[in-house]
Every structure is written in C-alpha cells, then in structure tokens.
Amino acid sequence: MRTSESSSEKFHRFAKKSLGQNFLIDQRVLSSIIRSAEISKDDLVLEIGTGKGFLTKELLKQGARVIGVEMDENLASDLSKELQHEPKLELITGDARHLPLEQVFQLKNPEYKVVANLPYYAAMPIIMRFLESDQKPTNMIVMIQREVAQNMVAKPGKMTTLSVMSQLYGYPKIIRYVSPGCFRPMPTVTSAIVHIEVYKSPYFNLRNDRNFTRLVKAGFSSSRKQIHNSLRNGINLDTEQVNALLNSAQIDKKRRAETLTMDEWAQLYESYEDLL
Questions:
Q1: Which one of 51, 90, 144, 175 has the fewest beta carbons within 10 angstroms of its own beta carbon?
Q2: 186 close to 179: Cβ distance less than 8 angstroms
Q3: Backbone phi and psi for residue 83, each to the nearest 5 degrees, phi listed first
Q4: Is 14 a domain residue?
Q5: Is 80 exceeded by the pLDDT of residue 108?
Q6: Rounded CA gap, 108 and 67, in Å?
Q7: Which domain holds residue 214?
Q8: Does position 93 have pLDDT exceeding 80, yes or no?
Q9: Of 38, 93, 51, which Cα lies nearest the Cα of 69?
Q10: Separation of alpha carbons 111 and 49, rounded Å
Q11: In this structure, are 117 and 218 located in the same domain?
C-alpha cells in the first residue's frame, strides 16, 4: 500500500539545492516579518523569492501591492496559477541580483519596501544591490544567516567590511533569530530577520564609490593587524603616505580597523581622496 506523502517530503521534493531553497513554514516567524515591515494598505512591496507563496499571501492579505520575483520558473508558474485572480500581485521570473529595476517598476523613483526570505548564497549581493541602487527602497526586511546579520549590525570593536558597507547605506537591526525547524527542508544554520531602515543618501558623501570600497577592504585586509599595516599592504602606499593619511584623519595608527566608527571612516575616506 502506498502511504500519503508528508508535508515535509513535499517541501523536499520542491526544493532545489542549487537555488538554496528553504521554505518558511512557521506562522509566528511570518507574523514577525509582517509586523516589522509595517505594511499599510496599498504599500508597494517587492518580495524577492516568493517560493510557494507563504509570505506572498500574507502580504496581499495586509492590503499590499506585491511585485514578486522568483528565480525558479516552476514555482513562479505554480504560484501565478494559484493566485491568478489577485489584482494586486505581479510575478516576475528572474534573478534579483541582475534583474533591471526599470523593468520591475513602471513608475520612476517609486516608494517601496523589500521583503524577502533570501537564499544564503545570494543574500549580500542582493541586499547591497538595493542599498546602492538609485531606486532605493525605504526599508528592507530580510531573512539571512545569523552570522551575516550579526556582522551587519556590529558596533565598533567588532566591525567588519560588511558592517561598514551596510551601515553606510542604512540602519540595520536584528528583529529575531529563526531556528532551522521553521523551514522545510531544514537548513543547517540559524537564520535572522533583519530590518534595514534605508537612508535616502549614504551616511556621508562619497566622491567615488570604488575608492571607498577599496579603502575599507584594505583596512580589513590583514586580520588583527594595526590599521597602518593593513592600509600599507592593501592600497600600495608607503609608510610615510599611510602615516600622513592617518594623521590627517586624526586616527591613531596603532588602532585596528574593527574599532573605527562610521564617522572615523568618513574622515579617513576624505583624507584618502585628498591624497589621490
């Protein structure tokens, strides 16, 4: 006799490892996402990774206009059929890392929120793409790996490249942690819901985005080394130039990159641009 397929087996059958699919199934976690997003009637929400529609349906129930982006053609087709009579839903098949935003939004400079249960492997490229975009969301509520979330919200003393780049464009806050048991199939790591209040413009003015990224990566290039050594090795400046750069920014050369505040990164960046 053939036994009926369990819900867990169904999720395993649908999930594709290559796309990092872990479907959220926990109602309490879903409620946490919705509360954090503060959805109002007719809010425009871009949902990345609609999957089987668990979050999509709740966003629609809250009255949001939803543009869903799903990379898996089969899941996108199934959800489109299931929700074909929802007038406030538009589904797009594509990779959110590369999808042209002008094809997503019909209005120029729309006001919208991003809500997403992101695959771990693509989370930061997707997040940074929207933070750096000319068409920024007002808020991002994303599910990501716990350790990545902790890096995003880190304070001076525990800062990383990811901390600096995230906090340049917005204010990230961890809403809650989410255990593997809240997904099917279960991932091997704990997740976190992060709310990012996106700044309309970066925390400080950037003359050249690439120069700032290069400076930050250089600062963190040598783990646990003093910042003058990291900068010298990372941006090919001699000792005299590095010391002059740090003196101009009023930063002790014996400090480590993880201890710098965002304001100190701003001072260091301005001094670096003046040196170029």
A1: 90
A2: no
A3: -110, 30
A4: yes
A5: no
A6: 15
A7: 209-275
A8: yes
A9: 93
A10: 20
A11: no
Cα–Cα distance, 227 to 224 (Å, whole number): 9
- Average pLDDT over the chain, rounded to whole? 92
User: How far apart are alpha carbons 169 and 21 in whole angstroms?
Assistant: 28
Euclidean distance between CA atoms 192 and 182, whole angstroms: 11
Same domain, 102 and 170: yes
Q: Provide the angle, in degrees to the nearest 10, between the axes of the packed helices 161-169 and 262-275.
A: 90
pLDDT, residue 18, reads 45
Q: Which of 261, 151, 165 is nearest to 215 (CA)?
A: 165
Q: 126, 116 in Cβ contact below 8 A?
A: yes
Instruction: Tell whether 187 and 241 lie within a shared domain.
Output: no
> Of 198, 217, 239, which residue constitutes the final position of a domain?
198
Return phi, psi of residue 149, to 5°. Answer: -60, -45
Domain total for the chain?
A: 2
User: What's the angle, vertex CA 215, arms to CA 213 and CA 217, rounded to 5?
Assistant: 70
Nearest to 251, CA basis, from 274, 270, 236: 270
**Strand order in 65-70's β-sheet?**
89-93, 65-70, 44-48, 113-117, 139-145, 191-198, 170-178
Q: Look at residue 12 and tell me whether its pLDDT is greater than 60.
A: no
135, 133, 163, 177: which is closest to 259 by C-alpha? 163
Identity of residue 209: D
Instruction: Using the structure block, give the residue that is written with the tokens 């989370």.
Output: 123
Instruction: Give yes or no for a contact between 272 and 245, defined as CB atoms under 8 angstroms apart.
Output: yes
